Amino acid sequence: MSNNSHRPRTSVIMPAYNAVGLLERAVRSVMAQTEPDFELVVVDDHSTDGTLALARSLEKEFDNLTVIALPANSGVSAARNAGLDAARGSWISFIDSDDQYLPAFLETLHAATGPDVDMVVGGRVIVQPDGTEANAASRALGEFDGAEACRLAMCDELTPFPWDKLIRRDLFEKVRFAEGAARFEDMATNIILHSLSRRVRAISTPVYRYHIMDGSLTWGRVPTVADTSVALSQLDQHLDQRYKEGKYAAAYDCMRTLVFLLVAQSAIARGSGTASAAATVAECRHDISWRMLLRALTVHRVIGAGAALLKVAPRVYSNLYLRHIRAAYGVETPRTPAAEAPAVEPPATRGTGSGID
To answer: What is the end-to-end Cα distance of the chain in Å, rounded?
Structure first.
């Protein structure tokens, strides 16, 4: 149990669900930080394996570790929000239970803060299922005011993940993660947080080890457009109207185009050749209007061109995307119908990423 006599500089929040095989690796990577002034809050989302028992044993080992057990499985957004409720630090960071912090995660990101900087975005090491590693970072690097950071995030120029960032605690007084969202709660929340920030700094230095789990890209339920409704409703509710019109209209439509494109990609990867995947792809093609597509082209040609190809030649797009994930991630598409494939993760336990390079 953490020592309540000291308010730490940073609260690190780790949601965990059925992560008994990887939780200790993640916890120890946080405890190995070169910046010592932090607490770790592990939130067990009503796991059915030994995750909670393992977390409790680690809690006895580390004075700055607190474990929260949710009474029912509520999803990663609820787990993160429970961690935020318990957090005592002036800064917030996140980690997924199957990933790792590099030792200087906190030191590096804190060094990049400043009096008006409310968020720092770091780089990451992507670890493929075969152990191959590659560095990656946001396309936009440097320091931006909150409005420009919001625009860049909507154009997929700043990463949509929660776990590669250091965020001033005060921002979470205005917005939380959308509970009940099946997809894109990370992207939606990050866009809102950028809009609320005074300044955002993005650096390329890798601070996080992101593990792509074998099978996680292709197995599980085929998504639908309806899965995006909760996150997009939160975005509509909390994002100021000025970021949806005028000079931001193209960026906003780029973000919406990207959401539908990502849903289509997930359907293709998880249920290639099935009727449910075909239905989702058809729905995405319908919801990407020509106006949205043309506006997206003006701010992100790759997203716009990909959406255009999906809209006019879905079979060609599907074949190209399947070839891409085989080459980029070393995974194969499922050989059984998606409805029969085992789910290797609960909904939205991994960070949403564009896959648009």
So the answer is: 43
Mean pLDDT, residues 60-88: 97
The rounded distance, in Å, linking the Cα atoms of 52 and 56 is 6
* 122 falls within a domain: no
Residues composing the chain? 357
pTM of the model: 0.89
Query: HSE (CB half, 13 Å, CA atoms) of 74?
Result: 17
Residue type, 122: G
Secondary structure (3-state) at 139: coil
Give residue for tokens 């950028």. Answer: 194
253-286 pLDDT, tens digit per residue, is 999 999 999 999 999 988 777 899 999 999 999 9
The total number of structural domains that make up the chain: 1
Report residue 283 as tokens.
Answer: 């729905």
Identify the residue whose tokens are 């990909």.
Answer: 306
**How many C-beta atoms surround the C-beta of residue 326 within 10 A?**
13
Round to whole Å and give the CA distance between 330 and 116: 42
pLDDT tens digits along 118-148? 999 999 999 988 889 999 999 999 999 999 9
The residue among 215, 324, 333 whose CA lies nearest residue 269 is 333
Residue 321 within any structural domain of the chain:
no
The mean pLDDT of 78-88, rounded to a whole number, is 97
Residue range of the domain that includes 22: 1-99
Residue 190 CB-density burial (10 A; 0-12 exposed, 13-18 middle, 19+ buried): buried
The more confidently predicted of residues 355 and 162 is: 162
Classify 310 as helix, strand or coil: helix
In the three-class reduction of DSSP (H, G, I as helix; E, B as strand; rest coil), residue 103 is classed as: coil
**Spacing of C-alpha 42 from chain mean position:** 18
- Cα 192 from Cα 240, distance rounded (Å): 9
Residue 3 belongs to domain with CATH number: 3.90.550.10
